[in-house]
Amino acid sequence: MTLHICDHPLVQHKIALLRAVETSTRDFRALSSELAGVLAYEATRDLMLEDVTVQTPIKETIGRRVSGKKVGVVPILRAGVGMLDGVLAMIPVARVGFLGMYRDEETLQPVSYYEKLPKDLSERLMLIIDPMLATGGSASYAATVCKERGAHKVKLLSLLAAPEGVERMQTDHPDVDIHVAALDECLNEVGYIVPGLGDAGDRLWGTR
Ligand code: PRP
Ligand code: URA
Fold first, then answer.
1. Buried b or exposed e, range 35-72, using 16+ CB within 10 angstroms
2. Would you call 202 a catalytic residue per the annotation?
């Protein structure tokens, strides 16, 4: 498993805005989407290409296009949905599946309530998207579901990660690369990322 931390200055700038408690719901949504697009761009660096003939207004030339079955995107409800637009802006033809789960507040274990994935996952790069990799329970479960449905190549895109979540993914899914905008310090006593950004779902959707 490789952990990719995006150290681009614009990403670090946007992450600081995202963390700030005074950032509005509207700005939080925009920032989540923009950051997700950058992570998707980085996570698809190793897509296979094939040559294609292109007629420009000037002459015929050889261009390159992504080959094969391409990409599937799986937001983890609810907060992962806030990253979806940004990923689709980068990869408009991606198939989209949804995994609904929430963390039990006492046990911190994921409780699954919805699963709807595209049919043929075996030849696709599957990008699981969730802004918060905390204990790693939700992301690990999502990767397991994707693999059970036939996925061979899975990556995780999160805005923030705790070391505990990275370790959990390394143990459960050593074949799943992780792309994050920042690696934080630790989890607090109720399983929130420190310094983090609070509850991603509540901040995105204006609930609380
Ligand atoms: C948050 C977040 C992740 C999960 C991360 O969802 O969006 O899915 O917690 O925690 P973990 O790494 O410890 O599993 P939450 O459970 O708050 O559900 P919600 O998005 O519906 O609010
Ligand atoms: N889920 C969140 O929304 N925030 C955290 O810090 C941890 C899990």
1. bbbbbbeebbeeeeeeeeeeeeeeeeeeeeeeeeebbb
2. yes
Q: Tell how far the Cα of 200 is from the centroid of ligand 1, in angstroms.
A: 8
Range of the domain at 78: 3-205
Pick from 133, 185, 192, 197 the residue to mutate for probing ligand 2's pocket: most ligand atoms within 8 Å of its CB.
192
Neighbouring C-alpha atoms within 13 Å toward the C-beta of 173: 27
pLDDT along the chain (208 residues), means of 10: 96 98 98 98 95 98 90 98 98 96 96 96 96 98 98 98 98 98 98 98 94
Pairing of strands 60-66, 49-55: antiparallel
Closest atom of ligand 1 to 102 CA is 16
As for how many domains the chain has, the answer is 1
Ligand 2 atom at shortest distance from the alpha carbon of 194: 6
At 140, which CATH number?
3.40.50.2020
| Ligand 1, residues at Cβ distance < 6 Å | 76-79, 102-103, 108, 110, 130-139, 165, 191, 199-201
Distance CA 79, CA 86 (A): 13
Q: What is the pTM of this model?
A: 0.97
CB 60 within 8 A of CB 53: yes
Cβ of residue 97 lying under 6 Å from some atom of ligand 2? no
